[in-house]
Specification:
Number of strands: 21
Distance between the termini: 25 Å
Radius of gyration: 23 Å
CATH class of the largest domain: Alpha Beta
Helix content: 25-40%
Strand content: 15-25%
Shape: globular
CATH superfamily of the largest domain: FAD/NAD(P)-binding domain
Number of domains: 3
CATH architecture of the largest domain: 3-Layer(bba) Sandwich
Strand order of the largest sheet: 7-3-2-11-19
Number of helices: 16
């Protein structure tokens, strides 16, 4: 399979969530041409799935220092305090820009309040000591995505390519091009045309989201296969802290409802976690694990639930918010209430069965707070990037904050350095031609399906919430064999979207395993039963991986 056409743009953004579309809008404001690549429909992303909200200091009873301290505490000694402070302090400006674009956050008036406690209804989530979560009901991400998609579609300088899956970055140092190592574009597979296109650009921004599909159980959509991290690693970027995978504590446990997240905001409104005791009675249990009980940080809550399930043999625990009336729940959590009701659960009258699932990656491509990867022309933003904000555990609702702030900051940095980057632009006649091995169409789709299932299963069993060195070694041995099989298959047959995603999932799985093996301690989201928990007050050390130079 060879490239079908070459397209030239000034900027290429791979990914269409908050960070990607915010980047695209800022880049397009300069008058230059921007291409946005997305694997499915433009709003098929993690942003759309976000329920809780965006953490931001907007209330006179809150301060930047308090938000910073809550973030550092959750990060267990691995946050970059300078990055934390810069992102937190830029939050109000970023939120106001989202509002200017058309995002409508829930006001206190929307919920029927008549007091004077401020315009917006502020929620509270695990790890936060103040109410500082702006939300749009319980579909905050969907509302932000709606406004951004509308703004991008209306912009003459932005072209959106749906059902286009990025394969690999074009990096001059690996293609034999003169002028030093830089990122010049990407090879992209068109799922509908079944061809590969070459996209050339002065800058490339990876905004590909998370890695949830590496695990058997996840809250993420199908597109979250770690493509940004995988492409960045193959291009030579540094990858940091991949062992810190956040498992959301509360995904609805139901045979017909898969991957539906029950927002942490419920616990912010007083919901408590319960399990069955020996008599079958539902009792609270989080007081055994943390002083903040059901409002403890996510890593603590997920491990506690996992431990209680293993102890009792039960398949789930329960989240009880029956202290609120049905009327109040329908106002504050309309989407969650209806989805639970559709599943036969009236959350005003009975507790919700929940289990943990893979949710968010705190590591990724190592960048500064402007998204720069160290490779000229290549930037990474959102969940595929590691700015140092999250450390060893993300504080709830800081992800949308980071996406909004760094999405814009990266584009401003690109604009500032545009002349220098433009000097390295390559023309279509100089662009290396993309080819994959044999032009044979495989009739062995079962191989892809089997390998995909096997990786996700052993990642859940061996590299999940509770790890041991023996399990990690077992996972490492298996992934080495599988990656060799997948790479051979990749070069022997015509590529498909499933094969591209499987290749990325296998690589990301190995990066998570390798990072987990390197960390000889339990810290934050990485819990290895063979090592003691390190004091969160003691500064930790990042685990950094980089592809060997060829």
């Amino acid at each position: 399979m060879k490239t079908s056409e070459t397209l030239e743009f000034d900027h290429l953004v791979i990914g269409s969530g908050l960070s990607g579309l915010r980047s695209a809008l800022t880049l397009a404001a300069s008058g230059r041409r921007v291409a946005v690549i997305t694997g499915g429909e433009v709003d098929e992303c993690n942003t759309r799935c976000a329920q809780g909200g965006i953490a931001c200091v907007t209330d006179i009873g809150d301060t930047f220092d308090e938000h910073v301290q809550d973030t550092l505490a959750a990060g267990a000694g691995l946050c970059n305090e300078k990055a934390v402070r810069a992102i937190v302090e830029a939050g109000p400006g970023a939120v106001h820009e989202l509002i200017d674009i058309g995002t409508k956050f829930t006001t206190r008036g929307d919920l029927g309040y008549t007091d004077s406690r401020g315009e917006y209804d502020l929620g509270r989530e695990g790890g936060h000591h103040k109410r500082r979560i702006l939300h749009a009901g319980d579909i905050t991400g969907a509302e932000i995505e709606r406004a951004l998609v509308a703004a991008c579609r209306e912009h003459d300088n932005i072209t959106i390519f749906e059902y286009h899956t990025a394969i690999d970055l074009i990096v001059s140092g690996r293609c034999g091009l003169p002028g030093g190592n830089r990122c010049c574009g990407a090879y992209v597979f068109s799922d509908r045309e079944k061809t590969v296109k070459t996209f050339l650009a002065v800058s490339v921004t990876l905004a590909c989201g998370g890695i949830g599909k590496v695990y058997l159980y996840t809250s993420n959509p199908d597109v979250a296969c770690g493509s940004g991290v995988a492409m960045g690693y193959r291009a030579g970027a540094k990858i940091a802290n991949m062992e810190f995978v956040q498992f959301h504590p509360t995904i609805l446990y139901h045979p017909t409802e898969r991957s539906f997240l029950i927002s942490e905001a419920l616990r912010g409104e007083g919901a408590v976690l319960k399990c069955r005791d020996r008599s079958g009675k539902l009792v609270e249990f989080m007081q055994k694990y943390h002083p903040m009980k059901s409002l403890a940080p996510r890593d603590v809550v997920a491990r506690a639930i996992d431990n209680e399930m293993k102890r009792s043999g039960d398949e789930c625990v329960f989240l009880d918010i029956t202290h609120l009336s049905e009327e109040r729940l329908k106002l504050r959590f309309p989407n969650i209430f209806q989805r639970c009701l559709d599943a036969g659960i009236n959350m005003a009258k009975e507790p919700i069965p929940v289990v943990p699932a893979a949710h968010f990656l705190c590591g990724g491509i190592q960048t500064d707070i402007c998204g720069y990867t160290g490779i000229p022309g290549l930037y990474a933003v959102g969940e595929c990037a590691c700015t140092g904000l999250h450390g060893a555990n993300r504080l709830a609702s800081n992800s949308l904050l980071e996406a909004a702030v760094v999405g814009e900051a990266s584009s401003l940095a690109i604009d500032e350095n545009y002349s220098r980057l433009d000097a390295g632009r390559i023309t279509p006649k100089d662009a290396p031609v993309w080819t994959s091995g044999n032009a044979t169409d495989s009739d062995e789709g079962v191989v892809i399906a089997h390998n995909w299932e096997e990786i996700r299963r052993f990642m859940w069993d061996y590299v999940g919430i509770y790890r041991t060195s023996k399990r990690l070694e077992r996972a490492k041995n298996r992934i080495k064999l599988l990656r060799r099989e997948i790479e051979k298959y990749y070069w022997d047959f015509l590529i498909t979207r499933d094969l591209i995603e499987l290749r990325n999932i296998a690589l990301v799985a190995e990066l998570i395993i390798d990072s987990s093996l390197r960390r000889k301690e339990s810290r934050g989201l990485h819990y290895n039963a063979d090592y003691p928990c390190s004091d969160p007050e003691l500064a930790g050390v990042d685990t950094v991986l980089q592809r060997d130079k060829e």
